[in-house]
Amino acid sequence: MPLKITKDMSSHLIKYIRTVKVSFNPFDARTTSARELLRQIHSERMLACNPKLKVINDIHSKPNAPRIQFDFVDGSDMAFNTEEFQVQEMMMDVWRTTMKIDDAFEMEGKNVDDV
Question: Full-prediction pTM beyond 0.85?
Fold first, then answer.
């Protein structure tokens, strides 16, 4: 059974993401996942939960493959060539990473709101 992320969990875990960089050509058919992930991350709820979150859009006309990079509060990052992934797959990887960071912060007695 796949991992289920509730709205409450995602509202907490989004705080561990510092920046999201999205790069794609809007006229390229391979950009579906990148555009949908951008829509989800750029939603009012996500931005309200993490006002420090920076969403950087690089919309261009180059024939480059669509790409998304997540930078986390602990200094780590994660990048995807989005033509190879569905949005759910990318977000599950991101949520798993943020859960590990959350566990590490809890073990160290840190609070994500203080970072």
Answer: yes
Backbone angles phi, psi at 23, to 5 degrees: -130, 125
Q: In this predicted model, what pLDDT tens digit does every residue of 8-18 receive, in sequence order? A: 999 999 999 99
| Burial of 21 from C-beta contacts in 10 A (0-12 / 13-18 / 19+) | middle
One DSSP character per residue, 53-75 reads -EEEEEE--S-PPPEEEEEETTS
